[in-house]
Amino acid sequence: MDLKLKAKSVIVTAASKGLGKATALEFAKEGAHVLISSRDASALKKSADEIIKETGNEQVHYTVCDMKKPEDIKAMVEYAVSVNGPIDVLVNNAGGPPAGTFSDMTDEEWYHAFELNLLSFVRTTREVIPHMKKQGGGHIVNLASSSIKQSIDNLILSNTMRPGIVGLAKSLARELAPNNILVNTVGPGTIETDRIQELNEKRAEKSGKSADEVKQEAIKQIPMKRYGEPVEFARAIVFLASGANTYITGQSLIVEGGAVKAL
Questions:
Q1: Where in the sequence is the signal peptide annotated (predicted)?
Q2: Which residues have a Cβ under 8 Å from the Cβ of 95 and sit 6 or more positions away?
């Protein structure tokens, strides 16, 4: 299948590692011109160099961007346009909020999660829409969590902010459909990343078990009996953001090996 991504201008945020990096790598394999961002310049350079080496695609650039700062987001999009041309694809991503229950969270932590995990998506989307309209179309894919379908214990901030992403995407999909801009949301289940390791360690601390015991218990709850690989998640994003997808918009997909029981 031709995904029609060759020479397309793609932004993937929070892409110095984990699911963002895996997604950027898959776009680069398809010949897209990719701009990755995060707050860590050295990690970004390392990731960009690794992607270029693995794919042979020299059109992989990076820039530092704090997703809580609107001026950083504006500068990121301007830089992406300067090196890769007007934006065809935006993949919204941001680090997950801290684990914890309702009683654990302060106002400051609620504001932080709102700015990082919802408002940042609003800001990046606002910046790229004019480019997509001018070109006659584009794709926006928001990375969320399986909590968009089924809440996750001890992740109150994620359970609150992630569904907001779905509401945003659904509204935008309807508003932007006449402009041929497709907007979708993809949520990971348990994918083998540093974020999952971090959450397992926190659960281990609370339960008195080892992180490996926590991992094995989690695996038992997944029908496929394993964690997902970042590439398996990334491929879903790349398809939804590609020229092969011309009619799927406003939808929410979770990549989770059958673990979520909700419809």
A1: none
A2: 14, 116, 195
Q: For 101, list phi and psi in degrees, rounded to 5.
A: -100, 175
CA 30 distance to own-chain centroid? 18
3-state secondary structure 57-69: CCCEEEEECCCCC
Q: How far is CA 59 from the centre of its chain?
A: 21
Quote the strand ranges of the chain, DSSP E.
Answer: 9-12, 33-38, 60-64, 89-92, 138-143, 181-188, 252-255
Asked if 6 and 32 count as a contact pair (C-beta separation under 8 A), the reply is yes
Q: Residue 261 in 3-state DSSP? A: coil
**Which amino acid appears at position 50 of this protein?**
E
> Any residues with CB less than 8 A from the CB of 189 and at least 6 apart, and which?
146, 222, 228, 254, 255, 256, 257, 259, 260
Residue with tokens 């800001």: 123
Rounded Cα distance between 74 and 180, Å, is 23
**Rounded Cα–Cα distance for residues 147 and 260 (Å):** 9
- 10-residue mean pLDDT profile of the chain (263 residues): values are 96 97 98 98 98 98 97 98 98 94 97 97 98 97 96 95 98 98 97 86 85 90 96 98 98 97 90
Structural domains present in the chain: 9-190+230-253 (3.40.50.720), 193-227 (no CATH)
pTM for this structure?
A: 0.95
